[in-house]
Design brief:
globular
Length: 213
């Protein structure tokens, strides 16, 4: 795996249901490196700190390999990396290969898989249609949120390697199916909630699916 693009966004004001909302979803490729900090990417702008940024969602990874299918579905968009709001676009990234808690090295930076991305209306704003939310869910390719264990800078063409596998953990896509699948398995749902590496954002949604327990 290898970094194809590094992407950051400036604050953008949009109108949503009659109200003005600031968002950082409009991310575009940048030259040079970006610094991955403990709670966010330096010089990126996270406007909604409840649902984005923080220790569990310091940086968002998405696969460059997914882009071609999406380009065919939405051919009229101005396509470039960063369209999904990802900070790092990576060639060869496959969500099926990862477990919550897995540790990766991105260039010289050490990070940990924390949860899949949960799409919201702002992705629909970027795509000019809210129907993209359901399509994103159906694709089962949500990208990966990471927590940064060892802050530092990363650069285009840096390698991305799995360096520690959490074999006894729940897989990223098992969490995804618990979040969005019909009739989630109650036992597996509890396993996910007990997982020490799963991000709190995903756990909040899973508690709702469990019935608020």
């Amino acid at each position: 795996m290898q970094i194809k693009s590094l992407n950051t966004g400036q604050p953008t004001t949009i109108e949503w249901k009659g109200k003005k909302v600031e968002t950082g979803i409009f991310k575009y490729p940048v030259e040079g490196g970006i610094f991955l900090g403990k709670t966010d990417v330096e010089n990126d702008h996270v406007m909604d700190r409840i649902h984005h940024g923080g220790n569990d969602k310091a940086c968002y990874l998405f696969s460059a390999d997914h882009y071609e299918v999406w380009k065919k579905m939405y051919p009229d968009l101005n396509w470039q990396y960063g369209m999904f709001g990802e900070n790092i676009t990576i060639s060869g990234l496959d969500e099926r290969d990862y477990y919550i808690g897995d540790v990766l090295r991105i260039g010289a930076v050490t990070v940990q898989v924390s949860q899949p991305r949960q799409p919201c209306f702002k992705l629909g704003i970027r795509f000019n249609t809210q129907t993209v939310i359901q399509k994103f869910i159906e694709m089962n390719e949500p990208g990966i949120y990471i927590r940064v264990l060892d802050p530092g800078s990363v650069y285009v063409n840096d390698p991305v390697d799995l360096i520690e596998r959490q074999h006894n953990s729940i897989s990223l896509l098992e969490v995804w199916k618990l979040l969005y699948g019909q009739n989630p398995d109650a036992e597996l749902l509890q396993v996910a909630l007990n997982n020490p590496w799963l991000g709190e954002g995903a756990k909040r949604t899973l508690r709702l699916r469990q019935g608020g327990k």
